[in-house]
Amino acid sequence: MPQPTTRARPTGHPGYSQTLPREPESASTARRLTDAALSCWGLDELAEDSALIVTELVANAVQHARRDFLRVVVERTDARTVRVAVADFSQAWPVEREAGDGDEGGRGLLLVAALAADWGTDERSWGKIVWADLEGRG
């Protein structure tokens, strides 16, 4: 399995990313990557919410994307804000919707919207990146 990478930037904070197979088991690897990044940055208070968010974003990519891989990215956009993102090769944008009675699915993006300070989708020529920003205290 590919190892996570850290990339230096001329300004700002480092980011962590890892390419993972498009399978449900990748959510646990994505949670570990997110936890490691938050721990290094001293933002452990975001661990629970980020674990739920990255799990939902990976689950959506597994269900709806094309190709065999997805990419998880965790980066600091400022000292107290972390962006968790999942890139996939599908042009279809995620849709926030209410789940029906007996529907086990459909609540993921509602959860992301409730936990994140902001979230969205960035279109790319090859697919999309779905991201969520979490803000630490202080």
Explain the layout of strands and helices.
Elements: E1 5-7, E2 15-21, H1 26-41, H2 47-64, E3 69-78, E4 81-88, H3 108-115, E5 118-124, E6 127-135
Antiparallel strand pairs: 1-2, 2-3, 3-4, 4-6, 5-6
Structure, briefly:
The chain is an alpha+beta fold and 138 residues long. 30% of the residues lie in helices and 32% in strands.
Account of the protein in words:
The structure is a single chain. The chain contains three helices and six strands; from the N terminus they run ββααββαββ. Strand 5 and strand 6 (127-135) form a beta hairpin. The protein has helices at 26-41, 47-64, 108-115, and strands spanning 5-7, 15-21, 69-78, 81-88, 118-124, 127-135. It has a six-stranded antiparallel β-sheet. It is globular and about 40 Å long. The protein is an alpha+beta fold and 138 residues long. It is 30% helix and 32% strand. Residues 8-12 have low confidence and may be disordered. It has a single domain (12-135), classed as Heat Shock Protein 90 (2-Layer Sandwich).
